[in-house]
Specification:
Strand order of the largest sheet: 3-2-1-4-5-6
Shape: globular
Structural class: alpha/beta
Number of helices: 8
Mean pLDDT: 90
Largest sheet: 6 strands, parallel
Distance between the termini: 7 Å
């Protein structure tokens, strides 16, 4: 079974990561405040979304790759955020490099909403994002491996 995947944040790292998911054959819903970035991913086969809420409503697994803690909090908890659209048991995988304190806070908020959250920052920069060889460091406070890794 192919999981529906969402990706929020199509910058230097998120764009090539999203392109690699498309190349691997995944159905992908994408959002970024930069409409040109969304259009480029749509041209590659992704479905563009108008908000993080829309990405979440159309995805079982939602990746975020954003500049800082403030952006991740807004995308998750804002008026049109992930928590407003996500289905129960969805998995949020934040690949941004943010404060561990904020990550724990957001994981607790996600858990209260019936969602799973993984903190998964990456290492390797744009070249490794492009060639699909990023090192991903994953941490999570609750056990969700069964829900997370069956895609």
């Amino acid at each position: 079974m192919t999981r529906k995947i969402g990706f929020i944040g199509l910058g230097i790292m998120g764009r090539p990561m999203s392109l690699n998911l498309l190349k691997a054959g995944y159905a992908l819903s994408v959002f970024d405040i930069n409409k040109e970035a969304v259009a480029a991913l749509e041209a590659a086969g992704a479905s563009g979304a108008g908000s993080p809420k829309e990405v979440a409503a159309n995805s079982e697994i939602i990746f975020t790759m954003l500049p800082n803690s403030r952006h991740v909090k807004e995308v998750m908890t804002g008026e049109n955020g992930i928590l407003q659209g996500a289905n129960k048991e969805s998995v949020i995988i934040d690949m941004s490099s943010i404060s561990p304190v904020v990550s724990k806070e957001l994981a607790a908020i996600a858990a209260e909403a019936g969602l799973h959250m993984l903190d998964a920052p990456v290492s390797g920069g744009e070249p490794k994002a492009i060639d699909g060889t990023l090192a991903i460091m994953v941490g999570e406070a609750r056990a969700c491996l069964k829900a997370c890794w069956t895609f």
